[in-house]
Amino acid sequence: MTRSALITGCSSGIGAACAHRFAAAGFTVFATARRVEKLAALTAAGCEGRQLDVTDPESIDRVATEIEASHGGIDVLINNAGYGQQGAFEELSLDDFREQLETNLIGAIAVTQRVLPRMRERRCGRILMLSSMGGRLTFPGGAAYHASKYALEAASDVLRFEVARFGIDVVIVEPGLVSSEYGATSLARLAGRESGAYTAFNAGLRAALSRSFEGQIPG
């Protein structure tokens, strides 16, 4: 039986690249995304495309149950799903903060908690937490995003200690800018009022983000 890998957020970027790499290494890759139609290229490359929303416990359980039934368990979990909420701290709504934490932090925790019991029973497994350089340093406008990544790293450091006795490794990955839809999503979700105390700040933030992702944002 081939080893299995469950990867979240595979519609583009790091998630898609991981799916290709693990498939080439001989894993049965369950590449997941909220919109399964975005996984066509990966399924054509031999991956198993599945719909999974990390904020939806039912979809998490459905995919994990399938893999456990067909492969006995999940050998590698890559928690990659996430996005970057941008905007001045004062102008971000509480819902902006909640949604960012729900996806980047709580979503990763939910998927991990679902797969851990079987990993523990089998006494083997590896969990990769896709954090960011933004989990070690901060930039203006990124309060919600940085909060999610700093918290993810803290939780992962604790988890690593707790599950090492069961043969489970927890690895934090901290990438910088990559060619993906992340930049476009960050710009699209930039929060801020059209006028007010942070008008100039928001304009500067948009310009800085555009420069940072120059050549990587479609259109």
Which descriptors would you attach to this protein?
219 residues; alpha/beta; 6-stranded parallel sheet; 7 helices
Describe the structure.
The protein has 219 residues and is α/β, with parallel strands linked by helices. The chain contains seven helices and six strands, in the order βαβαβαβαβαβαα. Strands 3-2-1-4-5-6 form a six-stranded parallel beta sheet, sandwiched between helices. Helix 5 links the parallel strand 5 and strand 6. Helix 3 packs parallel to helix 4 and helix 4 packs parallel to helix 5. The radius of gyration is 18 Å and the shape is globular. The termini are far apart. The model has no long low-confidence stretch (mean pLDDT 91).
How are the SSEs ordered, and which strands pair?
Blueprint: E1 4-7, H1 13-24, E2 28-33, H2 40-44, E3 48-51, H3 57-71, E4 76-79, H4 94-122, E5 125-130, H5 143-163, E6 168-173, H6 182-188, H7 199-212
Parallel strand pairs: 1-2, 1-4, 2-3, 4-5, 5-6
Instruction: Write out the strand line-up for the largest beta sheet, numbering strands in chain order.
Output: 3-2-1-4-5-6
Unreliable parts: none
Given the C-alpha coordinates, what overall shape results?
A: globular
The number of distinct helices, counting runs of at least 4 residues, comes to 7
Reported for the largest beta sheet, the result is: 6 strands, parallel
**H/E series:** EHEHEHEHEHEHH
Percentage of residues in DSSP E strands: 5-15%
* Mean of all residue-level pLDDT scores: 91
Specify the structural class: alpha/beta
Helix content: 40-55%
Q: Please report the distance between the alpha carbons of the first and last residues.
A: 44 Å
Question: Which value, in Å, is the CA radius of gyration?
Answer: 18 Å
Please give the number of β-strands. Answer: 6
